[in-house]
Design brief:
This protein is α+β, with helices and mostly antiparallel strands. The protein has a 5-stranded antiparallel β-sheet with strand order 17-18-21-20-19, with helices on both faces. A 4-stranded parallel β-sheet has the order 8-7-6-12. A 3-stranded antiparallel β-sheet has the order 1-2-3, with no helix packed on it. A hairpin with a 2-residue loop joins strand 10 and strand 11. Helix 2 runs antiparallel to helix 3 and helix 2 packs across helix 4. The longest helix is centred in the N-terminal third of the chain and has 25 residues. The chain is globular.
């Protein structure tokens, strides 16, 4: 999923979108006078080249490791065998990594409306002038950032009371303010009731706090998450337990059948490439007696929107439910590098346990958040008390200085 229709093609587009934003910023500051607008074709062609190269590289690594690749659809016959292209393959252990597919909610009129998904949006030959995006989380906001950079008029419609609803509330607020300033129309607490296509425009009827709303766009993107691709596996033939969110596994990634494991988007965990790799590695270890349990507490999460959002550990609301906590937020506006790079919007938020003085969570919205979050991951992995790193020195001028300013702030509160 990630290489072919997920992370790799989308991040290729987002990289080029960032180049465009930097060019527009340079024009605003009179660094040059070129008024031409970027051509989408080379961007699309570059994406395809990268996907092909990554796919070939991955295939080569697998084959060099002595692993045989069989292309086809696998269906379980029993607990120790699957059928692929009419051939029965038997194994002592089986690992299911079936990936995921877009979830399409039951909206009136959707079956008669040509809609885009996170997969088909990355295969567009031509960009629309306007687009309605249903879903204001990772997928919707990343693709929104790409479309906006290419001057597509975007509207994001989210059923929850804020965009990025799984993030810390303060992060969602700063992100919403930034997106609104960029000219993106955000409609939260908004339930989509009906869509209709008249072959020219797609109209959408919604409800927000009891009031009817209407939106129009050239295209509509369904970005309401992804669900496990389990339909063709015939899991029942092996007696494997599963639900609407995926295959049921224990802490060692075993299904209810001890010799069958599952990982990645096929199970109810974070649908992120690095999480799937971690789970696949762990499952393979456990097949041969390692007995290593999953631990998701210090796995970072990154949304490559503009600005970026990154987090690790608990939100303030989650942490407050079980601990006496201290939190702090340090603004990007107080970081010299952010001023230099004209990236002043953003915050670095830290949450610590008041008694142990250990970091419980870190949440960042702003430039290079995806890189900065790994400082927090390392701190949480080590289990070090925050006062032990209070005198750490970071290079000037870097964005990482802001992280250590935030540590200084929270240490003042802890002491």
């Amino acid at each position: 999923t990630c290489t072919n229709v997920g992370c790799v093609p989308s991040k290729s587009y987002l990289h080029d979108a960032e180049l465009i934003r930097n060019t527009i910023e340079a024009r605003k500051n009179a660094l040059f006078n070129d008024t031409s607008f970027p051509d989408f074709n080379p961007v699309k062609e570059r994406k395809s080249r990268i996907v092909k190269a990554m796919r070939q590289s991955g295939t080569h690594i697998i084959e060099q490791s002595g692993i045989k690749i069989i292309e086809g659809t696998a269906r379980f016959k029993d607990v120790n065998s699957v059928s692929i292209n009419g051939k029965i393959i038997r194994a002592e252990n089986i690992l299911i990594c079936a990936g995921a597919k877009p979830f399409i909610p039951p909206i009136e009129g959707i079956s008669n409306t040509p809609y885009l998904t996170s997969t088909s949006a990355l295969e567009l030959e031509k960009l629309p002038k306007s687009i309605l995006i249903i879903g204001g989380a990772y997928i919707g906001l990343e693709l929104d950032s790409f479309f906006k950079a290419f001057n597509v008029k975007t509207t994001v419609i989210e059923a929850a009371d804020r965009i990025a609803p799984n993030e810390d509330a303060d992060i969602s607020q700063v992100l919403a303010e930034s997106l609104t300033e960029q000219g993106i129309n955000l409609a939260v607490s908004t339930k989509v009731l009906k869509v209709d296509d008249d072959n020219k425009q797609i109209s959408l009827e919604a409800e927000q706090n009891g009031n009817k709303l209407n939106f129009e766009g050239e295209k509509i993107l369904i970005a309401t998450g992804r669900i496990p691709s389990l339909d063709d596996l015939d899991l029942d033939a092996a007696g494997i337990k599963y639900g609407r969110h995926g295959i049921e596994v224990n802490d060692f990634l075993q299904t209810n059948i001890p010799s069958i494991y599952a990982a990645g988007d096929a199970i109810p965990s974070l649908q992120l490439e690095h999480v799937a790799v971690y789970e696949g590695w762990l499952a393979a270890k456990n097949m041969y007696g390692a007995k290593k349990a999953t631990d998701y507490r210090i796995i970072p999460r990154v949304m490559f929107s503009h600005p970026q959002v990154a987090s690790v550990g608990e939100t303030e609301e989650q942490a407050a439910n079980r601990s006496e906590i201290v939190s702090t937020s340090y603004p990007y506006a107080g970081i010299a590098r952010a001023q230099i790079d004209r990236q002043k919007q953003g915050i670095i938020k830290l949450i610590a346990d008041a008694s142990t003085k250990k970091l419980l969570g870190a949440h960042i919205v702003g430039d290079e958040a995806g890189n900065l979050i790994h400082i927090a991951s390392a701190i949480m992995k080590s289990g070090v008390e925050l006062d032990k790193i209070a005198d750490s020195v970071s290079a000037y001028p870097t964005l990482s200085q802001g992280f250590f300013y935030a540590i200084d702030q929270i240490n003042e509160k802890l002491s």
